[in-house]
Each structure stands twice: as C-alpha cells, then as structure tokens.
Design brief:
The protein is of the alpha+beta class and 159 residues long. The chain has one domain. Helices cover 32% and strands 25% of the residues. It contains 4 helices and 10 strands; from the N terminus they run βββαββββαββαβα. Strands 4-5-6-7-1-8-9-10 form an 8-stranded mixed sheet. A two-stranded antiparallel ribbon has the order 2-3. Helix 2 packs across helix 4. The protein is globular, with a radius of gyration of 15 Å. The relative contact order is 0.19.
Length: 159
Amino acid sequence: MSFDLILQAFEKGKEGKGNREKALNFLSGFSCSQPDEFGYFTVSHSDGFEIEVAAKGLLNEEQAYSGAAFFLHGLSDETVAFIYDLAEYSGFVILNLQAGEGEPVVILPKGINKNDLPKEDYFLENMQAEIHSGIELGFLLRDGMDRWQAYREQILSGP
C-alpha cells in the first residue's frame, strides 16, 4: 500500500517523450539501485528515506521514456525536491492519484505547456497548480499524505 504519484509526458494532447538525457544526468547525483527489467529501482536519500521508482524506458533506448511512477510511504523535503526535479528535467506532468474525487489532480512543473495536455475534462478541471519548486510540491502533497497515512494505519490496525 503506497501513496502513488505518476509522472507523464504529453505532447499535443497525446503521450509524449521525456528527456532521457537530462533525467539520467540528474539521477547520476544520487545513490540508486540498478533498475530491474521492468524499470523499478530505489533511490536512497541522506535523510533516510528510500523512494521506490518505476521508469520503464529510462535505460533502454529501444523503449520510450514517457513517464515514471513513485510509490511513497512518507514524504521528506528531499523526497519532494527529488520528485519535482525529476519531473522538471524529464518534461513530465505530475498526477496525484490520491487527491481528486476519483480523478487525478494535475500538477504542472515549470516548463510544461498546459496546451500539450489531453483535452479530457479531468485534465482541465483538476489542474491544481503550476509550481516552480519541490517546496511548492511538498506544500500541495503533505495534506493528502497525512490523510493517506491515517487511512493506512486504520486499515493495518484492523477493527
């Protein structure tokens, strides 16, 4: 059970391609496990948090690098900065799957053209914010993370 964020590239309303070169350059500054065949790896931070990441196609140039997923169990300042920076360098929109009323909330990092988003209603109606830093992303995510952690504890502790 995790708090999930999806990062996705869009271009002219369709799935786009992320910037693999910038993403790999950014990731080279972190302690990461070797991605498995499905693109799953972990990133360790100096604050003790480990992040589970899926980024199929990041290392395999025969596959498109069009998105990533984060499976979070908590948030730290380093975690949200990392997520924001990977999204910005890759050219990805951030979709918060836990925040909307059944639909993801769309968060646009700096440099994303909102005209590239699909025209489906939930992309237009649920656009929460254009952000410019990990600090701003953390501000948007913390309340949802707190609610998710309370729900998780309720489920795990039983009736």
